């Protein structure tokens, strides 16, 4: 058998494996969406959940998921941006940077349940934040930091060195070159990574069970006192998210229509993650075209 036939066979096997994987993924997504979308309505998306009664929704859990995502990004993005700039632009090749990179790799490989237990021991018990949005956001920051840092570092490294030389030749300092030349050029990749990591955080459950809590108290949207536990903007209240709600429905069985609520919530969660992913790709592509045509 000659090399061309072997190459065709190997290529066919790879295409077949890829097709099987795509088929399985598409089948799973279609199953979840077809099973859940008939139960999704405006009432379902905005009404609070109900225990021991039918007709509950996911309004509070959906709001908690979005608000927790916002708080997590407010904490993790500046840290990731600073770490990514340091590793890409300033860090020298020595044992310290090797240790930092190794720590990032180890942290990114930790199971989310381990991050949740760490957050429970440190933020919930040691720092006495209790089960709260703040505890959940800090735990998710540990979960999100390695991915976002690596994305920012790679986005900055992808910028050609001539861009940096051009900034320095114009009399800009190294820091000004990074801020005014390198970062704007790398912004499509950074923004894409930011949105993709948002989708990953939005669907997280294990880490939040031990930190943000498993209850969704009623929210008073006329109360904007950040210290009140009924205020929607309070970071010290418990906040059951959508992913945790799905797990809780299937584990406790306190809802007569739990199967329908779980199916609808799963469909909403899948749609949100798909929007994050496709939105990130579309926005990154559009920004790249805009920068290259400018």
TrEMBL record:
* ABC transmembrane type-1 domain residues: 62-280
Q: Which Gene Ontology BP annotations are present?
A: phosphate ion transmembrane transport
**Gene Ontology annotations for the cellular component aspect, listed alphabetically:** plasma membrane
Q: Where are the transmembrane segments?
A: 12-34, 66-87, 99-123, 261-280
Q: Where in the cell is it found?
A: Cell membrane
Q: Which domain of life is it from?
A: Bacteria
Gene3D superfamilies linked:
MetI-like
State any single GO MF term. phosphate transmembrane transporter activity
Query: What is the protein name for this chain?
Result: Phosphate transport system permease protein PstA
Alphabetic keyword roster: Cell membrane, Membrane, Transmembrane, Transmembrane helix, Transport
**What family does this belong to?**
Belongs to the binding-protein-dependent transport system permease family. CysTW subfamily.
Q: Known SUPFAM superfamilies for this protein?
A: MetI-like (SSF161098)
Looking up InterPro entries in the UniProt record yields: MetI-like, MetI-like_sf, Phosphate_PstA
State the annotated membrane topology for this chain: Multi-pass membrane protein
Report which gene this protein is encoded by: pstA
């Amino acid at each position: 058998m000659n090399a061309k036939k072997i190459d065709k066979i190997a290529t066919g096997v790879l295409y077949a494996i890829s097709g099987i994987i795509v088929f399985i993924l598409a089948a799973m997504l279609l199953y979840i969406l077809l099973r859940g979308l008939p139960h999704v309505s405006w009432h379902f998306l905005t009404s609070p959940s109900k225990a021991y009664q039918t007709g509950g929704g996911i309004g509070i859990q959906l709001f908690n998921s979005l608000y927790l995502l916002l708080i997590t990004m407010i904490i993790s993005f500046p840290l990731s941006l600073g770490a990514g700039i340091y590793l890409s632009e300033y860090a020298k090749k020595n044992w310290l940077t090797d240790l930092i990179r190794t720590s990032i790799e180890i942290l990114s490989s930790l199971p989310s349940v381990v991050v949740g237990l760490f957050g429970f021991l440190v933020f919930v018990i040691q720092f006495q934040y209790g089960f709260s949005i703040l505890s959940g956001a800090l735990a998710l920051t540990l979960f999100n930091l390695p991915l976002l840092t690596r994305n920012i570092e790679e986005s900055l490294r992808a910028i050609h060195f001539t861009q940096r030389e051009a900034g320095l030749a114009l009399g800009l300092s190294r820091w000004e070159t990074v801020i005014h030349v390198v970062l704007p050029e790398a912004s499509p990749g950074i923004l894409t990574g930011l949105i993709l990591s948002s989708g990953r955080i939005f669907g997280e459950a294990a880490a939040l069970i031990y930190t943000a809590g498993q209850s969704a108290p009623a929210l008073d949207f006329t109360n904007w006192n950040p210290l009140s536990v009924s205020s929607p903007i309070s970071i010290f209240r418990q906040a059951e998210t959508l992913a945790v709600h799905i797990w809780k429905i299937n584990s406790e069985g306190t809802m007569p229509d739990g199967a329908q609520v779980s199916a609808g919530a799963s469909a909403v969660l899948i749609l949100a993650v798909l929007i994050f992913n496709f939105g990130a790709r579309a926005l990154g592509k559009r920004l790249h075209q805009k920068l290259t045509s400018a």
